[in-house]
Amino acid sequence: GWASEGLGSSGKNRRVCHAAARLEMGSLWEEFNRLGTEMIVTKAGRDTGEDGTTEMLGVRGRILAVLSPLPCRYAFHSSSWLAAGRADPAAPGRVHFHPDSPAKGAQWMRQIVSFDKLKLTNNLLDDNGHIILNSMHRYQPRFHVVFVDPRRDSERFAHQNFKSFSFPETQFMAVTAYQNHRITQLKIASNPFAKGFRDGDPEP
Amino acid sequence: GWASEGLGSSGKNRRVCHAAARLEMGSLWEEFNRLGTEMIVTKAGRDTGEDGTTEMLGVRGRILAVLSPLPCRYAFHSSSWLAAGRADPAAPGRVHFHPDSPAKGAQWMRQIVSFDKLKLTNNLLDDNGHIILNSMHRYQPRFHVVFVDPRRDSERFAHQNFKSFSFPETQFMAVTAYQNHRITQLKIASNPFAKGFRDGDPEP
DNA sequence: CCCTTTTCACCTAGGTGGTAAGAT
DNA sequence: ATCTTACCACCTAGGTGAAAAGGG
């Protein structure tokens, strides 16, 4: 009934307003962010390795990720990124639904919510559902916890039924090839699939 | 409302009574069945490669698979299977929910419904959710299309809300090692992961 | 003797950055 | 000159039956 769909003090539905989230692998994200994170975009789509942990209970809902563009074009000169004019026109942003969606809150709590199936592409005509980005532009990942409202006129309450999270340390630059060699080295050191490019002695 | 949940002539909810299904790779299943299909069970769990196609429209529901034991123990002697006494006592049968469940009918129709994540084990203490079988016993795979009834007292109508399918050509014997060498050869010829054991010239 | 378990080489499938060639 | 693409060797991850060892 209507009474049970009351709003919390934030103007959000009570089912989502207490949702919380923390970033998994936060120290690694910070290490990348200090150097200026770069993410490869290809025509076919490449992974991102995004992780997050939700602390949501009792919500029957969806979790989805979006990448919000930051409004500037960049260039990499003498080891640093510089703003280089207005952002190129962006295609309408795509949304990536977590593959476990929809699921109940207890299910989301059971394990880390990983966005490792999310792929980035620079192909404006992509029809694989990947998220389309402009290379040499900067993005802020965000994700939304959405309560699936069973009411028939649920569109009217859409603004109450989600709660959003973003972690500044996950901002990144979309590139087709790495610009900063220190980013390349950190990727090689931290991604198991790049183990073939490591040369030093591995730690236990 | 209640009127819209009326029953078809079969005594099943109208949402499932028109569901239909056909077996994918039917001719390969028949080829195996003529020889006597065998499926490996291990302690850790092994795949089955079950495929099926549903023809279900407009149903918000689940698809799940069960393996029904046939009540006999078998032995393999001189190239054929013989009944060999009563069936060993079986643990309560487990159910395998298709990982896309729940989903709407249109989603199920979009692609082949494959049970290739279903694994078989002979470990009675298995806690990976695999289906537990007795080796040297025969089984009939079945699957059920289930309408998720939104009514509060939906348990009362459970018997109306599913429709079951089984294909006799998918019956198989659970084994820990292949008994019939012709089954081994047909597995090697038809399973891409066993390509390493093929010796003849491959067909284009 | 019959059946089960363990380990193995050999595959499929797909995620890495490197590299050189291509595009603008 | 700068950015993009296509292909590659090298990984991770995991599905095969073979073979040998183990158990009752």
From TrEMBL, chains A, B:
PROSITE patterns referenced in this protein's UniProt entry, alphabetically: TBOX_2, TBOX_3
Compartment list: Nucleus
A GO BP annotation: cell fate specification
Domain T-box: 23-199
GO molecular function: DNA-binding transcription factor activity, RNA polymerase II-specific; RNA polymerase II cis-regulatory region sequence-specific DNA binding
Keyword field contains Transcription: yes
Keywords of this entry: DNA-binding, Nucleus, Transcription, Transcription regulation
Record's protein name: TBX10 factor
